[in-house]
Amino acid sequence: MAQPTNFGFGEEQVMLRDSARKFFQDSLPVDKLHALVAADPDPHRPLVTQWAPELWQQMVDLGWTMLAVPERVGGMDLGAVAVAALCEESGRAAFPSPLLATANVSYILAAANSTAADAALEAIAGGAAATYAGIDSRGSWEYADTDVEVRDGKLSGTAYYVQDAQKVSQFLVKARNGAAVELYWVAADATGIALEIDAIVDLTRDQARVCFDGVTAELVATDAGAALHQAMPALWTMVAADMVGAAEWQLQTTVEYARVRKQFDRELGFFQAVKHPLVNVMLEIDQTKSLVYNAACALDSEPEAAARTAHMAKASASDMAAYASSRSVQFHGGIGFTWECYIHLYFKRQMHNQMLWGDAAYHRAKLADLVIGPVAA
Amino acid sequence: MSDAARKDTPEQAEFRQYCRDWLQDNLPPEPPVRLPLSPLEIMTEPQLHYLQDWQKKAYDAGLVGCDYPVDCGGGGRNDCQRVANAEIAAVRTPFFPNVIGLGMAAPTVFFHAREDKKRELLPRLLSGEDIWCQGFSEPGAGSDLASVQTFAERKGDKWIINGHKVWTSLAHFAEWMILLLRTDKSHKYDGLSYFVVPIRSELGKSITVRPLIKITGETGFNEVIFDNLEVDDAYRLDEVGKGWQVAMTTLAHERGAGELVTPRSGGRGKSAGKESGSVFGSSALVDLAKTSFRNGKTAADDAVIRDRIMQEMIREEGFKQSSRRARVQGLQDHPMRIPLQNKLLMTEITQDVAELATEIEGAAGSLYLADPNAPAGGRWPMAYMNSFGMTIAAGANEVQRNILGERVLGLPKSK
Ligand SMILES: Cc1cc2nc3c(=O)[nH]c(=O)nc-3n(C[C@H](O)[C@H](O)[C@H](O)COP(=O)(O)OP(=O)(O)OC[C@H]3O[C@@H](n4cnc5c(N)ncnc54)[C@H](O)[C@@H]3O)c2cc1C
Q1: How far is the C-alpha of B411 from the C-alpha of B415, rounded, in Å?
Q2: What are the domain boundaries of chain B?
Q3: N vs C: which end of chain A shows fewer Cβ within 10 Å?
Q4: Dihedrals φ, ψ of B290, to 5°?
Q5: Cβ of residue A41 lying under 6 Å from some atom of ligand 1
Q6: Min Cα–Cα distance to chain A from B143, Å
Q7: CATH class of B277-408
């Protein structure tokens, strides 16, 4: 299959992108975001998740969670580029919500391709928020690794590093059943589920360990590996899209500062030691953004290239975000080192993003496996 | 015999043995409270008092201020501070809290203050009883330090000071401040003068100290506002209009390129490796990699991680060996070439080591201080964020590169 030249990014996608940008800007501008999530700077503060559920409800009502759901089960098919554009805007606003988490689950369920999975997708199309609980205690991204087990048809064990666990009503759980690794769909408030909240660096997210103690759940995939193999490129692509948006905010905010702050009778941006790195941040953002749209387009139009292009997008995004973050703090000087300066929100979100679903080195290693072939044992 | 010991003078050799013996019997007890990563993040009185006790004890034993004259409260020794520093580093102790005092104020006061003021101020500075802070930066004067606007007006043998300093580390605990200000508005550099002024005794009167919160959520630096502070002319350092030259003494020491060796202590509380003297923690990365999982596997088995840790170790060793080479006659091409690199290398290696640590931790790198499961108590993400304080403060690294390019390489001067 070949990709369309415009990445599948047509008029409808432009409209979606623009209205998303306006929605995030109007409903949670950065000063309000800071007041919402950073009111208490104490690193030992109680772990209360700060977000705006009413805004999330509006996003659901706008149909944004239906974008990653296939049309056949009530979704709205504007293609993965539309989801990428939405995630990019959400990243630009450092918006706290289960948008990425719910899209992730939608992609995995769509790949699971079962009646039960379709029913779960219908729930998402109907407004349910969900997150994927598939990481083990060792932070493994491998499809076969999980610390949740199926015993007597019920889930037991713990899923780690579960993203936005407090903002969702459903979990998609990866569990080992004898020799098989399966996926289960379960309500977040089901009997036998307990959350242990992680104290994380990122103020715009929440994360938890989800503990299962004999929980009854719906089997949605008997071969988790196959579903994940197909779906993970979408997860890598969407988090990379979030990072592109966040980095663009970091760039523009820092450029703006470098244009007004004067030292030595010159704006900071006059100095090439400031100007050139900012241009380099721009180069890296643009490289990454192109790789992200290529990967998103591949999901729909060139599935055989999905993994390769998504590894490229996430590897590029992780390095790019580290650099954009570091320069945004450095060029703000003393101000940039303070809590009251908004850039720390993005710095911390990017730190989280860089690691999420594998950092740059991980994705380059996986890419090398695809391109060069696996390392001889 | 260690490299250092082999080249000791008889005085240094004897002092080294003395330090070793003393340290063996006098290591401070475990702290009753959690300590911050560096003195710049001391937030509470219990933290401060524990650290002050340690500095006082080390001072009383002669390990702090060894090279200062006896009448200034020093040990009257010759080039012995580096010996004490090395021996202290080898056993890993808490740090001395009075960093700005020891590293910047002491040499500046020593080289530029009136004799009676040296005798008045230095003993309690060296002992750590008086905490010092540095009032250089202002909202409009950071990198361009010479544009400070805080003003002192002469009234007989007094000066009346008004203005606004910012980012002032440790001001919330400080008795004294070194203060760069303006005495003449018509000349940029020659209009500057340098004072030491009391802080704590003037709080709530002519001085207001307001804490600022850092990117990590910690406090530690402040805004300081002067509202008609009256200071005796005797607390002026050097001549009126010579403030910039005095500030150069401070900055040279701040950047590790000064004449006097700063008394140093620290290393405890870091989750560092067994090898001592790993200033930036690259050896701590080895331990971290052995106990961390990346994508389900021990990070120390990951070829990429191994390579990156080795890169940082090599940089750290290069830094150490450069400091050593800088002391060897005939082995450097320009006297300031290595000293002026110290600040850049120190801060950038520290930053990169901390960033690498969070990568080694993989998914667990998302966990912060309050999480009981955070590797090393969440110190690495915190250290990474704090490292930007170091690449920004004491002359942002961009400015530092200008200085190296201009002073050492002779490239054309920017501004
Ligand atoms: C943790 C911390 C502790 C501090 N403690 C103290 C203290 O105790 N006492 C005190 O007086 N000050 C202190 N400072 C202030 C520090 O010295 C200043 O922040 C620093 O000099 C930079 O000034 P600025 O913040 O105004 O940044 P600016 O001067 O506005 O510069 C912002 C950025 O622009 C870039 N830049 C600036 N000029 C140039 C140039 N000519 N060429 C290229 N790039 C340039 C640099 O990247 C710089 O980081 C502290 C700062 C921090 C972060």
Answers
A1: 12
A2: 3-99+123-130, 133-246, 277-408
A3: C
A4: -75, -25
A5: no
A6: 7
A7: mainly alpha
Angstroms from A322 CA to nearest CA on chain B:
9
Q: A47 and B397 in contact by Cβ < 8 A?
A: no
Interface probe, candidates B309, B388, B414, B415, chain A, greatest A C-beta count within 10 A: B388
Tokens representing B60 are 């009383």
Ligand 1 atom closest to A266 (CA): 41
Q: What is the pLDDT of residue B277?
A: 42
Beta strands B297-298; B221-232: pairing state: unpaired
Query: CB-based contacts of A169: which residues, under 8 Å, 6+ apart?
Result: A128, A129, A130, A187, A188, A189
Query: From the CB of B143, is ligand 1 less than 6 Å away?
Result: yes
Nearest residue in chain B measured CA to CA from A354: B359
Render pLDDT for A33-55 as a digit per residue (tens, 0 to 9).
Answer: 999 999 999 998 888 899 999 99
CATH of B3-99+123-130, one of 1.10.540, 1.10.10, 3.30.160, 2.60.120: 1.10.540
For A273-292, what is each residue's pLDDT tens digit?
Answer: 999 999 999 999 999 999 99
Q: How far is the CA of B398 from the centre of ligand 1 (A)?
A: 10
CATH code at B133-246:
2.40.110.10
The answer to whether residues B130 and B59 touch, using CB atoms and an 8 Å cutoff, is no
Task: Return the SS3 of A358.
Answer: coil
Q: What is the pLDDT of residue B268?
A: 66
Q: Which domains does chain A have, with CATH numbers?
A: 5-128 (1.10.540.10), 131-223 (2.40.110.10), 226-372 (1.20.140.10)
- As a whole number, mean pLDDT of residues A83-111 equals 98
**Partners of B214 in beta bridges:** A338
Q: Which residues of B are catalytic?
A: 254
Tokens of A325: 């973050």
Question: What is the C-alpha separation between B114 and B199, in angstroms, rounded?
Answer: 20
Contact residues, chain B, for A330 at CB < 8 Å:
388, 391-392, 396-398
Nearest C-alpha neighbor of B215 from the set A109, A335, A91: A335
What is the number of the ligand 1 atom nearest to the C-alpha of B143?
29
Rounded to the nearest 5 degrees, what angle is found at the Cα of A68, between the Cα atoms of A66 and A73? 60
Query: Is the minimum distance from the CB of B389 to ligand 1 under 6 angstroms?
Result: yes
At CB < 8 A and 24+ separation, what contacts does B391-394 make?
B391/A330, B391/B347, B391/B348, B391/B351, B392/A329, B392/A330, B392/A333, B392/A334, B392/A336, B392/A337, B393/A334, B393/B167, B394/B251, B394/B254, B394/B255, B394/B343
Query: Ligand 1 within 6 A of B403 CB?
Result: no
Nearest CA to ligand 1 atom 40: B399
B12 and B83 in contact (C-beta within 8 Å)?
yes
**This prediction's pTM:** 0.95
Q: Which long-range CB contacts under 8 A does A229-232 form with residues at least 24 apart?
A: A229/A143, A230/A111, A230/A303, A231/A104, A231/A107, A231/A108, A231/A110, A231/A111, A232/A143, A232/A307, A232/A310, A232/A357
The nearest alpha carbon in chain B to A366 belongs to: B295
Q: Which long-range contacts (CB under 8 A, 24 or more apart) does B316-324 make?
A: B316/B278, B316/B279, B316/B280, B316/B282, B316/B349, B316/B353, B318/B345, B319/B279, B319/B280, B319/B345, B319/B346, B319/B349, B320/B277, B320/B279, B324/B3
Residues of B in contact with A365 (CB under 8 A): 304
Give the distance (Å) from ligand 1 centre to CA of residue A286. Answer: 29
The residue type of B111 is F
Cβ atoms within 10 Å of A69's Cβ, excluding its own? 28
- Among A208, A167, A93, A235, smallest CA distance to B363 is for A208
Which segments within A242-302 are labelled E, that is strand? 262-263, 266-267
Let me know if A263 is exposed, middle or buried by CB neighbors in 10 A (0-12, 13-18, 19+). Answer: buried
